[in-house]
Amino acid sequence: MKDIGIGVIGLGRLGYVHAYNIARRIKRAELIAVCDMNGELARETADEFGCRAYTQVEEMLDDRNIDAVCVVTPTAYHVEPVEAITKRGKPFFCEKPLASNMEDTIKLVKLIAESDSRCQIGFNRRFDPEYAEAKRIIESGELGKPVYFEGISRDPFPPPPWACDPLKGGGLFIDMLLHDFDIARHLMGDDIKSVYARETNMVVPAEGIERFADNVTANLVFSKGALGNCHASMHASYGYDIRTEIYCEKGSILLGSPVKLGITVAKAENGVCKPITFQPEGKMPHFMIRFEESYVREMEDFVDMVIENREPSVTEIDALEAFKVSAAAIESAGSGKEVFLSHGT
């Protein structure tokens, strides 16, 4: 079979990552075109990867060489490209979240279900080797049933302005903790029944954004009785800090570290320390240093899904269920009350 021709829509931080991986690292895939409303950016990226450049989604989708699509626009601008893609019945990869609010999320879930398109959601942590091994260990039963989930997600600096705004990118509960809520469901093998959340702004200037928060927490209760807690922050100046613990009946699994390499340096000036942390390096965003392999693996899985004509590993239903938790956390942080979730569409 010929390589799968892919078009990438949106060339921000992750758009470039996916375009790069498709063009340089993914077997059986060919980057046919990139599309961005910034024409200069589209042309520069197309020149770098030797593909075509578009500024209009519809024009790119008319390209006969495009078999599948990758949607990486800012969260608030997912609806239009997804609608256009499903009209054509093309398979597509969509970065999380599926949409920026519950109404649009449910709308797109139904639209996908009624179309010939298959949608894979970009929850990359599921494809990270550490998290994949944790899932294998839990499913083997050697540690017994999981009883508690702990998630820590701390960025070294704030994300782009649109992602900080709860009305555009959802703030920390959506832009960041959505990953934790999804991986919690995935590793615990259970839906989340209720959320009790808190938010505060103590370090990063709010710059006029309503309900801006630079630190948030969410206490979780799972349907089978297990408990959980998640913390997100955007001012971890020491580096990119992503850690997870799954405490089980007969043991515990701990993933991640705030340091990149397991070395210790001792000097007279600053004593004993571990100075090598996850910091920005070069053109790639800082989180690629920790999760580079996961982004390659998830796109390989997407290409395999298209070639094999099978169901996606991570679906729009997974996107909906994780988004429900984020939405409940936002509601809870606003009301000061525990919020209970319903499942299904």
How is this structure best described in words?
By secondary structure, the protein is an alpha/beta fold. The protein folds into 2 domains: about 5-125 and about 295-315, NAD(P)-binding Rossmann-like Domain (Rossmann fold, 3-Layer(aba) Sandwich); about 125-285 and about 320-340, Dihydrodipicolinate Reductase, domain 2. It has 10 helices and 15 strands. The chain has helices at about 15-25, 40-50, 55-60, 80-90, 100-115, 130-140, 160-165, 170-190, 285-310, 315-335; strands spanning about 5-10, 30-35, 50-55, 70, 90-95, 120, 145-155, 190-200, 215-220, 225-235, 240-250, 250-255, 265, 270-275, 340. It has a 7-stranded mixed sheet with strand order 12-11-7-10-9-8-15. It has a 6-stranded parallel sheet with strand order 3-2-1-4-5-6, sandwiched between helices. The chain has a two-stranded antiparallel sheet with strand order 13-14. The model has no long low-confidence stretch (mean pLDDT about 95).
Overall CATH class of the largest domain: Alpha Beta
Portion of residues in helices?
25-40%
The order of strands across the largest sheet is 12-11-7-10-9-8-15
- Our estimate of the beta-strand percent is 15-25%
- What is the chain-wise order of helices and strands? EHEHEHEHEHEHEHHEEEEEEEHHE
What fold name goes in the CATH topology slot of the largest domain? Answer: Dihydrodipicolinate Reductase, domain 2
- How is the biggest beta sheet arranged? 7 strands, mixed
Any low-confidence stretches, pLDDT <50, length ≥5? none
Shape estimate:
globular
Number of domains: 2
* Gyration radius, in Å: 20 Å
Count of strand segments:
15
Task: Summarize model confidence as the mean pLDDT.
Answer: 93
Helix and strand composition category = alpha/beta
Report the end-to-end length measured between terminal Cα atoms: 36 Å
